[in-house]
Amino acid sequence: MKIAVMGYGTIGSGVVEVLDVNRDVIAKRVGEPLEVKSVLDLREFKGDPIESKIVHDYMDIVNDPEVRIVVETMGGVEPAYTFVKAMLMAGKHVTTSNKALVADKGAELIGIAKEHNVTFLFEASVGGGIPIIRALQESLTGDVVEEIKGIVNGTTNYMMTKMTMEGSEFEDVLKEAQDKGYAEKDPTADIEGYDACRKIAILTSLVCGKQVDYNDIPTEGIHKITATDIKYANAMGRAIKLLATSQAAGDTYYARVAPFLLTPSHPLYHVNDVFNAVYVHGNMLGDGMFYGSGAGKLPTASAVVGDIVEIAKNVDGNIPITWEPSKVTLADPGNQEYEFFVRTTADQATVEAAFGAVSYVDAGIAGEVGFTTSKMAQREYDDKAKQLGDVLQMIRLA
Ligand code: HSE
Fold first, then answer.
1. How far is the CA of 189 from the centre of ligand 1 (A)?
2. Are residues 260 and 304 in the same domain?
3. Fewest C-beta in 10 Å: which of 43, 224, 246, 310?
4. Residue 26 burial by CB count (10 A; 0-12/13-18/19+): exposed, middle or buried?
5. Domain end marker among 241, 275, 292
C-alpha cells in the first residue's frame, strides 16, 4: 500500500523513520507492507535517501492513483487545508498532526471524507503520542465525559517545571527551552496558550460531537508568571501548571485555558517537564488519566503511523467520527466558579472590605499581600478585584 507525506519537517521525517524502523511489525498488523511513494516539500533534500521521492506539486499526489493514504505534517491552516481537501476529494485517506487545521476545519474535513468514502484521522494533533483522540472516539463511547483537564503543551509545562524546581525567571527559562530545542524560535503560540486552546477545542468538539470554536475559549498563557508567583505557590504547597479545561454545564460546556495552582493530590500535579497528560472524568468511568510524551518527533510520528495502520486496515471505507459542523454556544465564562489566589499592593483592610474573609499566604515578599478567596463566580471576582485598585497577579486554584 502506497503512502504520501506532505511536509518533510520534524514530524514528517519522523513518520518516514517510524515506517522504516517498524516496517515488519507494521506489515504484519496491516497484512501487507506500507511504502512511502512520494514526499511533498518545497526543498530538495539533496543526498538524503528521500531525495528521489520528493515532489513539489501537491497535484502530483492528487493525480497518483497508487497513493491510498496521505499524511499531512505541514502545520498551519493554509495551504494544508487546500491540499488535504483535494486529497479527500480524490478519494485518498488523510491523517494529520496539525492541530491548527483540525481545530479550524476538522468537522468540515470529516464530512468531506465521509462523502468520498474515505477517512480523516488526527490522533497526533493533541497530546503527541498519547492516544487520547482514539480513547474519546472509540473507548469512552459508553460514557458521558463531564470534564477534561489537560496539560497539553510540552513547552510551557517544561518551563513551569523549571521555574518551580529552580526558582528561575520566565525569560531565563524560555531562553533555555529555546536553546534545548523545546520552544520554537517564535514561542508565542505555546506561551500565550493558543496551542493548548486549539487542543482543548478539538477534545471538547469530540466529546460533544459538534464544533467548539477556539475563538470562544478564554485563553491566558504563562508569560505573566514570575519567580515571585512560584514562591507563593511553594508557600501554599501547590504547583502552577498551564491547564486546558472543559466542563459540562447543562447541555453545553465551560472551557478555559489558563495557569492554575494545583495541590499535590491533583493527578496533574506530578506531570512535569515536556510530558503531557489529559485527565478525563466520565459519568460512569469516574476519573481517568492519559499520560505520556506529548510532543517531539518520534512520539508524534508514532501517533500518525497508528492512524495510518488503522486506515490501512479499513482502506475500502470510511471510519466514522462524530463531529458535526454545527457550532456549540459555550457557557458564559463569567459564571464559572473558582477559588482565586491574588497578589496586591492594597492593604489587608481593603482586601477584606472587597472579599470578606480570605486566607493570607506568607511567602516573605515585602510590600504586597497574597491571599486566596472563597469560591465565587469569575464575574464576582472581577467586580471585587476592581475594589483592590492594584492587582499584581491572579491565578485560579484547581
Ligand atoms: N509546541 C507544542 C508543544 C508541540 O510544546 O506541546 C506539540 O503540539
1. 9
2. no
3. 43
4. buried
5. 292
Query: How would residue 28 be classed by pLDDT, with cut points 50, 70 and 90?
Result: very high
CA distance 281 to 143: 9
**Does the beta carbon of 195 sit less than 6 angstroms from any atom of ligand 1?**
yes
Q: Ligand 1: does its nearest atom lie under 6 Å from the Cβ of 95?
A: no
254-to-243, 335, 340, 394 alpha-carbon distances in Å: 13, 9, 17, 19
Could you tell me if the CB of 293 is within 6 A of ligand 1? no
Give exposure, 346-381, as e/b (b: 16+ Cβ within 10 Å): beeebbeebbeebeebebeeeeebbbbbeebebebb
Amino acid at 225: I
pLDDT tens by residue, 137-147: 999 999 999 99
Does 150 lie in the same domain as 124?
no
Told to judge if 384 belongs to the known catalytic residues of this protein, a careful annotator would answer: no
Question: Which structural domain, as residue segments, surrounds residue 344?
Answer: 334-397
Q: What is the pLDDT of residues 234-266, one digit of tens each?
A: 999 999 999 999 999 999 999 999 999 999 999
Q: Is the CB of 129 under 6 A from ligand 1?
A: no
Split into its structural domains, the chain has a count of 3
Which runs of E-coded beta strand occur in 183-268?
Answer: 239-249, 252-262
Q: Ligand 1: distance of its center to the CA of 294 in Å? A: 7
Does the CA dihedral 261-386-337-360 come out positive or negative? positive
Please choose from 73, 153, 243 the residue to mutate so as to test ligand 1's pocket, defined by most ligand atoms within 8 A of CB: 153
Distance CA 112, CA 304 (A): 20
- What is the rounded CA–CA span in Å between residue 296 and residue 305? 14
Q: Which residue's CA is the nearest one to ligand 1's atom 8?
A: 295
Return the ligand 1 atom nearest residue 158 CA: 5
Catalytic residue among 99, 149, 199, 241: 199
The 3-state DSSP class for residue 237 equals coil
